[in-house]
């Protein structure tokens, strides 16, 4: 697939739940410096929320949402996950404040700022096709689009229906939507990630820092266990702790029972041809998982594959593509959920410093 590069600049923002505080800090710094050369804005999950507040030029909005809404039990309650009373993640409750809270998103201003020449898109995953699609954020169905890009499988059990199809978290199929930026011809990319994906020391080799499944297990353990210690002492709620152990063990079993393709075995010439990757992903997913595991495990496999391909793309971009990554210099304090407010604010401050560093290194 031939891609015609243009001089357009794109802003690509990774999701990651409460880890989005880092990107919020970066983008608030951009707003303060009046830095916005972009004509294409792409975000996944929390990244789409951060893109929204950047387009409207409302500094502090992204941090406000993460700090004051995602930390409340009404937003995410692990007990609801255990008891299956309701969805563990109440996106419906949270997103009403995006429109009518104390610090609402200025949807009209966002549409005006975009005009007819710019696009702000949220990545969502088509449930049946297991493929990423991109919907305009500042549209009449903005509420459903933002809910869909954040609808994490297993936590938010209701798939979002838009245009007659069902959609879930964009992170299942495009954690960092750099491929889409490339498909749309925007070959100058500023990419905000929650951890470094470009390995500076390796010039001609693809750098894979850690197994995504193992990292997922560590993430879950780091976020869930302190939370359980706060709400469920050993003598009170062993069921919660037991479910946590079962979930973490299921991740390990998935890794052991399925042979994931090694990245160094993938042909290099598929990089510009993302459709070829999608076909391979769908084939592998249905062949290895669908007959033996629930859809949630199929989605985990898709996440593994897409994250690996994105890492390779960013380390070996196609000819003519320039990627400037903004990532934290050290691991973020937050996990995706269940983080303390102090950790969220510390990651926001880290993002502010990273944004200032990026701006100071721009060519004059």
Q: What is the end-to-end distance?
A: 35 Å
Biggest sheet statistics: 8 strands, mixed
DSSP helix fraction: 40-55%
Strands, total number:
8
CATH topology of the largest domain: Cytosolic phospholipase A2 catalytic domain
CATH architecture of the largest domain: 3-Layer(aba) Sandwich
SSE-based structural type? alpha/beta
> What number of domains?
2
State the shape: globular
Instruction: Specify Rg, calculated over alpha carbons.
Output: 20 Å
Tally of helical runs: 13
CATH homologous superfamily of the largest domain - what is it?
Cytosolic phospholipase A2 catalytic domain
Mean pLDDT: 77
Order of helices and strands: EHEHHHHHEEHEEHEHHHHEH
Low-confidence stretches: 201-210, 230-236, 258-293
CATH class of the largest domain: Alpha Beta
Annotate the secondary structure layout:
Elements: E1 6-13, H1 20-32, E2 40-44, H2 46-56, H3 61-68, H4 78-83, H5 91-100, H6 107-114, E3 119-126, E4 131-136, H7 142-150, E5 160-162, E6 165-169, H8 178-183, E7 186-192, H9 212-231, H10 238-257, H11 274-290, H12 295-315, E8 322-326, H13 341-360
Parallel strand pairs: 1-2, 1-7, 2-3, 7-8
Antiparallel strand pairs: 3-4, 3-6, 5-6
Helix pairs in contact: 1-2, 1-3, 1-13, 2-6, 3-13, 5-7, 9-10, 11-12
Protein name: Patatin family protein
Active site: 45, 169
Keywords: Hydrolase, Lipid degradation, Lipid metabolism
């Amino acid at each position: 697939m031939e891609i015609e590069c243009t001089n357009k600049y794109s802003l690509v923002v990774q999701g990651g739940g409460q880890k989005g505080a880092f990107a919020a800090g970066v983008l608030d710094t951009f707003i303060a410096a009046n830095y916005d050369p972009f004509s294409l804005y792409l975000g996944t999950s929390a990244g789409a929320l951060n893109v929204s507040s950047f387009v409207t030029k409302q500094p502090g909005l992204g941090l406000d949402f993460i700090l004051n809404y995602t930390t409340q039990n009404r937003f995410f309650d692990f007990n609801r996950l255990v008891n299956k009373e309701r969805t563990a993640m109440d996106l419906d409750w949270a997103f009403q404040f995006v429109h009518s809270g104390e610090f609402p998103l200025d949807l009209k201003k966002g549409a005006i700022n975009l005009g007819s020449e710019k696009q702000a898109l949220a990545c969502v995953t088509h449930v049946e096709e297991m493929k990423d699609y991109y919907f305009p954020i500042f549209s009449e169905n903005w509420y459903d689009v933002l809910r869909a890009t954040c609808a994490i499988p297993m936590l938010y059990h209701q798939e979002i229906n838009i245009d007659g199809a069902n959609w879930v978290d964009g992170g299942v199929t495009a954690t960092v939507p750099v491929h889409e930026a490339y498909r749309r011809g925007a070959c100058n990319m500023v990419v905000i990630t929650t951890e470094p994906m470009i390995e500076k020391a390796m010039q001609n080799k693809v750098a894979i820092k850690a197994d995504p499944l193992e990292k997922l297990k560590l993430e879950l353990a780091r976020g869930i266990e302190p939370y359980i210690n706060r709400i469920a002492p050993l003598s009170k709620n062993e069921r919660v702790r037991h479910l946590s152990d079962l979930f973490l063990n299921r991740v390990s079993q998935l890794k052991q029972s399925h042979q994931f393709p090694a990245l160094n075995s993938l042909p290099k010439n598929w990089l510009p041809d993302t459709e070829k990757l999608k076909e391979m992903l769908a084939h592998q997913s249905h062949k290895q998982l669908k007959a033996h595991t629930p859809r949630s495990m199929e989605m985990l496999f898709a996440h593994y594959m897409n994250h690996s391909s994105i890492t390779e793309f960013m380390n070996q971009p196609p000819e003519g593509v320039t990627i400037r990554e903004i990532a934290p210099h050290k691991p973020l304090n937050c996990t995706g959920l269940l983080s303390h407010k102090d950790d969220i604010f510390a990651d926001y401050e880290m993002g502010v410093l990273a944004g200032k560093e990026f701006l100071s290194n721009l060519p004059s």
